[in-house]
Write a structure and sequence with these properties.
By secondary structure, the chain is an all-beta fold. Helices cover 0% and strands 48% of the residues. 36% of the residues are buried.
């Protein structure tokens, strides 16, 4: 929902045979009473989207940013689609994921993002390195320059990250699994994602 109370929706659409999944964006300018015609946000990503991985959408005035996991012949990278005309079209779709995770089964884990009108901060899980790790990407919504890499790696695996932030201060929570025990960890950055703190166990009990 934007600052005027108007919603943007992201839904998954298929063809008549439930094949060729893609992410569809719908935008309302009257508080959700009506919606403009649907627009394919993931059209420029190769092959099809990962059909069991939830997507994420952020809106800032006339900018709409959609992040999603793609499926290009079992390469399950994260992509970001950007619109600068209130979601009328998504003119730039980028692969921001260096993992190149090749997996035939569905990971059922999508991205999360924080957007301040200039920078898209995105997080996700990938096993492209050999183990499930938390990745982080910082992308300019104007120049499309981005940096991506692993934000946290320890123990057996991590999954289901969520991110929020304000300017250069970011917080990231995720499930961490080590030796059969799963906890919820929190890491933070005060330099816009250049570096991350040591983890804090926010739950305290497995």
């Amino acid at each position: 929902v934007d600052e005027l109370g108007d919603p943007v929706l992201m839904i998954m659409a298929y063809d008549q045979n439930y094949q060729n999944p893609e992410w569809i964006a719908l935008r309302s300018f009257d508080g959700g009473a009506t919606f403009d015609p649907m627009v394919v946000a993931s059209e420029d990503a190769p092959h099809e989207v990962c059909d069991c991985c939830p997507a994420n959408v952020n809106v800032w005035v006339d900018q709409v940013v959609a992040s999603f996991r793609n499926n290009d012949q079992n390469i399950r990278d994260m992509w970001i689609a950007t619109s600068h005309d209130w979601g009328g079209q998504y003119d730039t779709v980028l692969d921001v994921d260096p993992g190149n995770w090749n997996i035939s089964s569905c990971p059922s884990s999508g991205p999360d993002a924080s957007f301040d009108g200039n920078t898209v901060h995105t997080t996700w899980m990938s096993s492209g390195s050999g183990s499930a790790r938390i990745y982080y990407s910082r992308m300019s919504s104007w120049t499309y320059e981005f940096e991506s890499g692993i934000a946290y790696e320890s123990g057996n695996s991590q999954n289901f990250p969520r991110i929020a932030g304000n300017e250069d201060t970011l917080g990231l929570v995720f499930q961490n699994s080590e030796n059969g025990i799963s906890n919820c960890l929190f890491i933070y950055s005060t330099d816009g994602g250049d570096s991350w703190s040591n983890p804090i166990d926010v739950y305290g009990d497995s």
